Amino acid sequence: MPYSTYKLASLDYKIFQLLYKNPLLSIFQLSQKLGVSFHTVKSRINEMKRNGFLRQDQIINDPLLGKRIQTEVEIVYRPHRLGLLRTHVFIDGINGRNSLKKIADFCDLHPYTHYNVVTYNPRLSMYIQFDIPSRTQNLLTKVLNILKKEGLFERYTIIPSEFAASSPAEFDLWDFEKADWSFIKIKSNKIDEYNERNIFEKMWSKFDFSSIKEAPKIAPSKAYPFDKLDLYLLREMTINAKASIKELAQYYKKDPSTISRRIKRIKAVLAPKAKLYYNTKLFNLVSPQIILGKFKNKDGFNKWSAYWFIDSHYFKFPSTLVASKKDLIWYLTILPTFIPDFLEFAWEHMSTFRIYNLQIPLSNTYFFYPENFIEEESKWDTSRNWFIEEPLEQLV
Q: Which CATH number does the domain 1-54 belong to among 1.20.1270.20, 1.10.530.10, 3.40.50.450, 1.10.10.10?
């Protein structure tokens, strides 16, 4: 059934709302919260998977772990708590399909790649995230220069994460009966109207500037002395956040209590959030964009206010903002009809900006790669051979 024609049943939507807020809720917990049977919840989730709204379970052949089941939920780890820095790379002016394939192959081969997606700006481009040890930022520049000299692309931009904030979609504004967004929200007997022009300026105008303070800076540091077992369990959960403790204990030849204790610590410290994979087309959230811009720093829109604007959920659409002193990366998914308004907002508050239209079907999220960690030395591999030479040697 096409996503655009699939309509959620009332119970399905209630299940989705609960899972969106906490993807790790069990079927039993969902049944308790909704007051329906375990079997009913399980059958409705399976139906949403069959209809393509939730990502279907699939068996994958992982190169490190073998056969695994990938489900609709994955853990989201925080690289800085592993001592890694998420670094954002924009590659512009890719010279044709062959060059695009070679860059994509490089991403597949590089051990520190976390994510990539094909974009248009308006020419063929690619946005890449690397989770790298801080000491390898110069190596990243060197390997990109090598690829650039091969004539694969015209330019690249590297931006490390200094501050990052995210906000979820405000599904309380989704009108289930009309299957459409209703940007009229009644709260404390006041009506906030968002369905006129300048919707983003209106959201910004409601922001409480008194809440602005210095944002927590991302400082890569190992949160605790983890080992290879912890990192392999982290990879397991980036494949399937609902992996069976019993099966993991059998695979790693440990008792279930050890595996359970390790996973609890990983979730509490390294990966406190999980992601639910659902099809955004049902909610008309079909226009994923990245804005790469610079702050004006003259009208109140700066790295601090932008951070708290997103973190405080004044922005009603799913978005992530990464900021440094002068630069910002704003990843957001909005309704197509709101794109002109957002561009006007960007023009008003940024000195310069570039727009990247993301081709989500041409994207890859890479499972966490524990082989980057040298257990005997308790450190990440920062050698030139591992970071540059081996990936390039394998690149055909």
A: 1.10.10.10
